[in-house]
């Protein structure tokens, strides 16, 4: 995309910040009509999938939903650039040396870890990438226009830190690495921190780096606030961006009070990164000028405003190379009709839980240390042959692992690898007296939501 086109999109994003709800909906309708017309012409999959839908219809309820397994099974027919081939892209994402590179020298590729049951591969075009970059800015940048935030940003040399799982083409880590590769600014001022690192190592690294802006898993940021209160951590960020996991108003207040900084929650997914951003009144606003959100029940029927959904159907209005139309994201959300006191006409939304519990273990020296859910589950997910997993703490020193294997793997060999990797991970955190056992059942979906929980404890809290 040339700078002029990128500038047009960026300008439109910022202009929409103060428009009426009617104008937001008009933007959405125009983009939706163009998208539906495009996918019916250019995507072989959608052309067949919508064969029974009247031509020219923009009523989304007439269009059958799609799921991640469905899109992965028909990947080559879904994408609209015939140069993109699933077998080749699988080889690309299997190569960790290519993290941060563009597939075919053109397309960023982001993968999901499979914690909701199926791993996914999602290709981004330039419009989608631009939207990922600028949608959050229209909510966050105005909050930083002040003497104190700007002073901190300059004092900390514009350092931006991201706490995200590495070792794969995940949106956070791969996106950051791409920016590091493609710009001098990114190379010097962007740094990735792994939640899989022992908490003390993470604290040391952050003390050395001194981020001006720190984005990452909500559970990790809350734990870092405790470390700051204890005097082990000493950073002065201007902005904290909790993401990827639910965070309560109380926890956000803890972050604000501890670090004396601006806190803005982000909600998104690999498939569409900037779904919603928090405003100064603590409400998440859905970016509905570029995404359509349909909160639905288990039968894909719409739920009333103010009612938590069983899942949400997402239609991305930015990505044409791998279109998502009524895509079952799997999250429970609640959309509200009420306006926000901040004055924005973008709808307010809330998000249900998507992750698991932070598990506290005692080290060999008797110290309590936290183990974060995404860090723990990713250890198992990275074992070759693992299709999906769940980890349950069934006793103070016992972890039970549910897992399912791929067709080319044997349970016995995979289990040996899982047990070895988990024990190694725990030892790295100073925890050696844990029994890791295989569950008799495979991972199970929650009956109500149909989702997989990642990590949780059955102990009384």
From TrEMBL:
Keywords: Ligase. It comes from the Archaea. The keyword Ligase applies. GO terms for molecular function: ligase activity. SUPFAM superfamilies: Acetyl-CoA synthetase-like. PANTHER family: CAPSULAR POLYSACCHARIDE BIOSYNTHESIS PROTEIN (PTHR36932:SF1). This is Phenylacetate-coenzyme A ligase PaaK, adenylate-forming domain family. The lineage of its organism: Archaea, Methanobacteriati, Methanobacteriota, Stenosarchaea group, Halobacteria.
């Amino acid at each position: 995309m040339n700078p002029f086109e990128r500038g047009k999109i960026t300008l439109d994003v910022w202009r929409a910040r103060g428009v009426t709800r009617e104008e937001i909906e008009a933007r959405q309708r125009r983009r939706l009509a163009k998208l539906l017309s495009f996918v019916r012409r250019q995507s072989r999959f959608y052309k067949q999938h919508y064969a029974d839908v009247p031509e020219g219809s923009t009523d989304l309820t007439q269009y059958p939903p799609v799921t991640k397994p469905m899109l992965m099974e028909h990947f080559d027919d879904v994408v609209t650039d015939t140069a993109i081939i699933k077998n080749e892209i699988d080889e690309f994402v299997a190569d960790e040396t290519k993290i941060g590179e563009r597939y075919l020298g053109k397309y960023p590729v982001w993968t999901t870890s499979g914690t909701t049951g199926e791993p996914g591969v999602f290709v981004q075009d330039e419009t989608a990438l631009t939207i990922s970059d600028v949608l959050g800015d229209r909510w966050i940048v105005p909050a930083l226009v002040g003497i104190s935030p700007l002073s901190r940003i300059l004092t900390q040399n514009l350092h931006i830190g991201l706490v995200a799982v590495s070792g794969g083409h995940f949106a956070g880590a791969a996106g950051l690495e791409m920016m590091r590769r493609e710009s001098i600014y990114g190379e010097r001022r962007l740094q990735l921190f792994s939640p899989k690192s022992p908490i003390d190592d993470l604290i040391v690294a952050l003390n050395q780096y001194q981020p001006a802006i720190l984005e990452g898993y909500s559970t990790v940021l809350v734990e870092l606030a405790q470390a700051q209160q204890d005097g082990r951590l000493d950073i002065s960020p201007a902005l904290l961006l909790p993401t990827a996991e639910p965070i309560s108003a109380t926890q956000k207040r803890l972050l604000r009070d501890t670090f004396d900084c601006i806190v803005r929650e982000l909600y998104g997914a690999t498939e569409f990164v900037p779904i919603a951003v928090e405003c100064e009144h603590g409400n998440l606003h859905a970016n509905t000028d570029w995404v359509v959100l349909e909160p639905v029940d288990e039968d894909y029927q719409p739920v009333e405003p103010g009612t938590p959904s069983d899942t949400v159907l997402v239609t991305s209005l930015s990505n044409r190379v791998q279109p998502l139309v009524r895509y079952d994201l799997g999250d429970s959300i609640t959309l509200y009709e009420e306006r926000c006191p901040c004055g924005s006409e973008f709808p307010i939304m809330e998000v249900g839980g998507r992750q698991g519990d932070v598990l506290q273990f005692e080290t060999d020296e008797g110290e309590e240390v936290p183990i974060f859910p995404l860090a723990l589950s990713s250890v198992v997910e990275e074992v070759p042959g693992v299709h999906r997993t769940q980890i349950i703490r069934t006793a103070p020193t016992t972890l039970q692992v549910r897992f399912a294997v791929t067709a080319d793997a044997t349970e016995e060999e995979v289990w040996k690898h899982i047990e070895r990797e988990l024990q190694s991970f725990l030892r790295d955190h100073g925890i050696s007296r844990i029994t890791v056992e295989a569950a008799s059942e495979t991972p199970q979906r929650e009956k109500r939501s149909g989702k997989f929980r990642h990590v949780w404890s059955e102990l009384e809290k």
